[in-house]
Amino acid sequence: MGASVASGAGAGAGAGARTGADAVAGSPAAAGPGAAVKDGGTGPDPAGRSVTVLGLGPMGRAMARAFLARGYAVTVWNRTAHKADDLVAAGARRAGSVREALAANALVVLSLTDRAAMYALLEPAVAALPGRVLANLSSDTPDGARAAAAWAERHGAGYLAAGIAASPPQVGTDQGRAYYSGPAELFEAHRGALGVISPVEHLGADPGLAPLCYQVQMDLFWTGLTGWLHAVTMAEAHGVGAAEVLPYVLDVAGSLPEVLRFYSARLAAGDDTGDVDRIAMGAASAAHVAQTARAAGVDPTLPDAVLATFQRGLAAGHGDRSFTALREALRAAPARA
Q: Residue 283 has what pLDDT?
């Protein structure tokens, strides 16, 4: 993802995660996923200093470069083979097929568009999956990650779902963060290698936890950025440019950490008291935004959606409560025509 988004706890995990090689047991495939597997002399490095990267978009390429910089033996594969040229020149090994790439190393890092792309690549090569650990840093949903983990297990592979809050230039640095979910023993076995990509955190055994955390971040990120773009478009319709409104935008953005901490504490306490804000007040404000957009000839879909949520809170009789009471409206999605 193109932005570093700060998550809550676990920042300290990164420092420890960036030292040492991942300790992969040097026993045969029968020892289970993550064990070093010999494949006719071309299999995984028993010292754990080798990795395969499948998918060489901006993030995959950055990950491969980070592994090379840390002295890892890196095998790469991409559907468009020439994208690996500079990595091969830097010391990576280009696999001729997905099966060959899987056979090369116990740890396989996936940097793909989505889960469907993973299935499309791996299903024809499932014979090479036993004993491998798939660390999937592709975007996914919680339920999708659980299904993918079960699929991998059926084919003899371990599976770590991941979310990465870092941009390609931040990969291989202490900026950003990557969080994983899945079996703790697999995460610990490959902590050192995964820590090369970014400081790491293990969220738990449920494979859906890391994608959930990632989608929570992306919900806020994309909704917020789209709101900013809508606001700028509205300003431009009045002859005011993005640079001119930036100080006012930054005033709001700068207040968000304090606002989020305040309301998070109230959410945890179940306190929807309308002493700081009220749904009725928010509805009026959202209506003014929508009216301003319409008057400027700007698409009002986004502010209309916000207004509709406030109006559902009003219809439920919560006008005097804090906007946090809108959770009740959000939990019950409106019927679609």
A: 97
Write out the two tokens for 204.
Answer: 């738990």
Q: List pLDDT tens digits, range 94-128.
A: 999 999 999 999 999 999 999 999 999 999 999 99
Closest C-alpha to 285, from 266, 256, 307: 307
> Any idea which residue has 């440019």 for tokens?
241
DSSP structural state of residue 138: S
pLDDT reading at 273 higher than 70 = yes
Q: State the residue for tokens 């000839």.
A: 297
Residue 289, pLDDT > 70, answer yes
Length of the chain: 337
Indicate the pTM of the whole model: 0.80
Alpha-carbon distance 151 to 145, whole Å?
A: 10
Instruction: Find all residues with CB under 8 Å of 58, minimum gap 6, and list them.
Output: 168
Contact 26, 36 (CB under 8 A): yes
Q: Which domains does the chain have, with CATH numbers?
A: 13-206 (3.40.50.720), 237-331 (1.10.1040.10)
Written as one letter, the residue type at 307 is L
DSSP category for residue 50: E
